[in-house]
Design brief:
The chain has one domain (about 20-235): Undecaprenyl pyrophosphate synthetase, CATH 3.40.1180.10. Helices cover about 40% and strands about 15% of the residues. It has helices at about 30-35, 40-60, 80-100, 120-130, 145-160, 170-175, 225-235, 245-250; strands at about 20-25, 65-70, 105-110, 140-145, 190, 210-215. It has a six-stranded parallel β-sheet with strand order 3-4-2-1-5-6, sandwiched between helices. The structure holds 3-methylbut-3-enyl trihydrogen diphosphate (2 copies) and magnesium ion. The site of magnesium ion has 2 residues, from loops.
């Protein structure tokens, strides 16, 4: 049995506070450029905003927060920016893991780790192990993650494990192999920085998520901006294919 129901198989139970928020943290480079700073200054500032948003989520009862930190296409960036970002992950892990553990936060990394420096891979493993038993907020960092990679790796592993299911596997069989099998589907998707696209983030899991786009650049995404996103979510009518009348009569 899957841990969580699928939005396309059964209508999920939803509440005022999103159980799972997924975020594309975009606009760091533009934030820095506006201030005549190097792009990496925006990434540095972005880490501080992560800390703040994690706190907001933990305080408001959100159970899962998933942050897109580095996409499978971000390797296309100039190599000095890529190296800086890798260094920043390492530094953030070193500095924050203790605090995550203290605050009952479980850290999980999703994405293809094979391209990371072995020291970074080891640090990720340690951080996950150290926070594994925590049952407060689950913080997922998507690094070298791509939605297509995720579906592909899931299909491959499923067929390796259960070749007899090659032409009969179900949605539930497959979703057990997807990177986010341990979490419900995101209720709310936020993208900062003004672009209105998914950029190969959680393609499978966003099937029925409420989408929220804001012009606010990630380094400016403060408590007030977070509240606007939650307010917008609370105005939505989540029908999952049904009519509005059916919801009222429920
Ligand atoms: C998001 O900010 C952070 C990463 C993709 C790592 P960007 O670096 O994409 O910032 P913009 O979009 O250039 O402003
Ligand atoms: C998406 O942002 C990836 C992350 C925030 C990690 P990008 O800045 O890479 O997206 P595009 O290139 O504008 O679509
Ligand atoms: Mg960007």
């Amino acid at each position: 049995m899957a841990l969580f129901s699928s939005s396309t198989q059964t209508v999920p139970v939803t509440g005022e506070i999103p159980q799972h928020i997924a975020v594309i943290m975009d606009g760091n480079g533009r934030w820095a450029k506006k201030r005549f700073l190097p792009r990496v200054a925006g990434h540095k500032r972005g880490v501080e905003v992560v800390r703040e948003v994690v706190r907001q989520c933990a305080n408001s009862g959100v159970k899962y927060l998933t942050l897109f930190a580095f996409s499978s296409e971000n390797w296309r960036r100039p190599s000095d920016e890529v190296s800086f970002l890798m260094g920043l992950f390492m530094e953030a892990l070193q500095q924050e893991v203790g605090k995550l553990a203290e605050n009952n936060i479980r850290l999980v990394m999703i994405g293809d780790r094979s391209r990371f420096d072995p020291a970074l891979t080891a640090k990720i493993g340690e951080a996950e192990a150290q926070t594994q038993a925590n049952d407060g907020l689950t913080l997922t960092i998507a690094a070298n993650y791509g939605g297509r990679w995720d579906v592909m790796q899931a299909v491959k592993r499923l067929l390796q494990d259960k070749p007899q299911l090659a032409d009969s596997f179900t949605e539930e069989d497959l979703s057990a192999y997807l990177s986010m099998h341990y979490a419900p589907e995101p209720d709310l998707f936020i993208r900062t920085g003004g672009e209105q696209r998914i950029s190969n983030f959680l393609l499978w899991q966003l099937a029925y998520s409420e989408l929220y786009f804001t012009e606010t650049l990630w380094p400016d995404f403060d408590a007030a901006a977070f509240k606007l996103a939650i307010d917008s979510y609370q105005q939505r009518e989540r029908r999952f294919g049904r009519t509005s009348e059916q919801l009222v009569n429920n």
